[in-house]
Design goal:
Layout: H1 7-20, E1 21-30, E2 33-44, H2 47-57, E3 60-64, E4 76-82, H3 83-93, H4 101-116, H5 126-144
Antiparallel strand pairs: 1-2, 2-4, 3-4
């Protein structure tokens, strides 16, 4: 992953992300404890473009092959960032985002809040759970409205 970015590259990736990316504030349980987490994903069938973005911003690349009808369906490439790496990517893209700008700001705020928790072994307070749930629900509403 390159340390310095060319503004044009970030603008290109932001435009691509506005169309092909998604931001998730996930809610789940781990050993009966409610957990929230951030992930950012870009999905496309154009492998060279996804690999180019990965060369700039890192991330984990997953490939999905469709065996049921390989003639009609191309392989799908998912480039994934989680937690602080997702936040770092969003901060880099934020100045150039149009469609997902509000959603990205919400996600960055969410991750900032997670990083503030000093003792990760301590159960979340009701207030912490409530705030995370509000951010989770707000993120879902933005997805349903197209990110705005």
């Amino acid at each position: 992953m390159a340390g310095e970015f060319i503004e044009l590259d970030l603008a290109y990736v932001a435009g691509f992300f506005d169309g092909e990316g998604n931001i998730n504030i996930k809610k789940g349980r781990n050993k009966n404890i409610l957990k929230y987490s951030l992930s950012v994903v870009i999905t496309n069938t154009d492998q060279p473009v996804i690999e180019y973005i990965q060369s700039l911003l890192g991330g984990v690349l997953h490939t999905t092959k469709f065996y049921s009808n390989p003639v009609k369906r191309k392989e799908r490439y998912d480039l994934i960032w989680c937690s602080t790496s997702a936040q770092r990517v969003l901060k880099l893209l934020l100045p150039y985002l149009r469609v997902k700008e509000t959603q990205a700001k919400l996600a960055v705020t969410f991750q900032d809040m997670l990083e503030e928790k000093v003792d990760r072994n301590r159960p979340l307070t009701q207030l912490e759970l409530d705030v995370r749930e509000i951010l989770h629900q707000s993120s879902k509403q933005l997805v349903n409205r197209g990110g705005k």
